[in-house]
Amino acid sequence: MTKQTELTTILADWDERDKTIMAILCDLDENTTSTNAITEQIRWMYNSRTRHSIKRNFKRVTRQDVTKDMPCPTYEVLLAGAAKKLGIHKHCTSIDEHERYIPQAVIVAALTKMNPAQRDRFFTEEFNASPMWEAAGIKSREIGGLRTAASVLALANASGYAVYAGATTALGFATHAVGITLPYAAYTGLSATIAQLIGPPGWLALATYGFFKVTGTDWNKLMPVLLTIIATKHRHEILRRQHSQPESTP
């Protein structure tokens, strides 16, 4: 991936609700929703290894002192880092592949840690999938209504919404796996529905292991951030496509 996209560019068009989600995920106050504050916190989390190294060598360090040693990652750098952490980097050669494969890998990792009853509920229990599509302005009788999580993901793939559906689903797993609970209103569609379906105890049981051992970049915290960026980015793209299409006349 030669193209590099600054996170400030991606976050520029986000509304306050989207930025509030990011603030919570970045351990910021819900009211601290400025783009600069969020990207600064992502920079700080991404460079955790460098940060600890600097702290060992200096009695006092401020964030302004280490800007050069701790650059803010671009979107592509975050994608590449997550793919490597998940062990799928050899299969990812484009942004599209990163955005598709990373959520899928997170979902698979979560399912393997669930007990049989939890997995069975994921594959068999029906829930109302309409809020997920409505959040992105998608109006289709074919993909709305009651569905199982697995069938929703399959329909999303067939309908061209695979990245959006996969990322929102993976976000639900990633946040609950490390004990992060977002307000119900903060979730967009599928994540909230599946979280309610399986139930907080089932999700939070995953917090006993986390997704990743923290030896460098703190991916336990950054993975939900990245999945939120992927999901929100694609939700906005879907909404733009919907608005650009001419309204059909009866």
Cα-based radius of gyration, to the nearest Å = 18 Å
Overall pLDDT score: 78
**Number of helical segments with 4 or more residues:** 13
Secondary structure tally: strands: 2
Q: Largest sheet, if any? A: 2 strands, antiparallel
Structure description:
- This protein is mainly α and 250 residues long.
- The protein has one domain (7-241).
- It is 60% helix and 2% strand.
- The protein has 13 helices and two strands.
- Helix 2 runs antiparallel to helix 13 (219-244).
Would you spell out the secondary-structure blueprint of this structure?
Layout lengths: L6 H5 L4 H10 L9 H12 L1 H10 L17 H12 L8 H19 L2 H9 L1 E3 L1 H6 L10 E3 H11 L2 H16 L12 H9 L1 H5 L14 H26 L6
Antiparallel strand pairs: 1-2
Helix pairs in contact: 2-13, 5-6, 6-10, 9-10, 10-11, 10-13
List key phrases describing it.
globular, single chain, 13 helices, two-stranded antiparallel ribbon, 250 residues, mainly alpha
Task: Write a brief structural summary.
This protein is an all-alpha fold and 250 residues long. 60% of the residues lie in helices and 2% in strands.
